[in-house]
Design goal:
single chain, alpha+beta, two-stranded antiparallel sheet, 5 helices, extended
């Protein structure tokens, strides 16, 4: 006889309650955190072909030069490289084609308004699987000046030197 706890866990997994439990990262855009101040993050679905999904499952994506543009009331992800699937044939699409972001109309309108009003831009921060769906984390960002980039580097260097000094004094 199964315990009540086992029956409840089985029912929860049958409903799909645990499929959103974790994110499986595919690619991150570390350059974006160096180049921009991140103002607001948004999760969006991606409209992909079958071979693109298989390529993403292999972890073959690059977000470095990607950006988001709003055209005719739809959000599009531009310049993101998803490598062609090795076992695919004629069915492989262009690796840098624009891909539709799946967002609600009010989210797209709010995004477009903030981009136009603030002079901000929108870039992808990461691609990941949430359950069986491919998602993109996009962010409204503003550009950093050169002195904004130097200060964290200087702080990181001084922290490193302090750790090394403490390590030398212990021995």
């Amino acid at each position: 006889m199964k315990s009540r706890q086992e029956r409840m866990e089985r029912a929860a997994s049958a409903r799909g309650a645990d499929k959103n439990a974790g994110k499986r990262p595919i690619a991150t855009n570390r350059k974006a955190f160096h180049e921009y101040f991140v103002d607001e993050k948004i999760e969006a679905g991606l409209a992909l072909t079958g071979t693109e999904v298989k390529s993403l499952r292999d972890g073959k994506a690059n977000l470095t030069d990607g950006y988001v543009a709003v055209e005719k009331g739809e959000a599009w992800l531009h310049n993101v490289h998803i490598a062609p699937y090795d076992a695919g044939s004629w069915n492989n699409p262009d690796p840098k084609r624009k891909r539709k972001l799946l967002l609600h109309k009010r989210e797209i309108a709010r995004l477009q308004g903030k981009i136009q009003a603030k002079g901000a831009t929108c870039v992808p921060l990461s691609l990941y699987f949430k359950g069986r769906h491919a998602k993109a984390e996009i962010a409204l960002v503003t550009g950093k000046k050169l002195y904004d980039k130097r200060e964290p580097l200087r702080r990181r260097e001084s922290d490193k030197e302090a750790r090394q000094a403490i390590k030398r004094n212990r021995s």
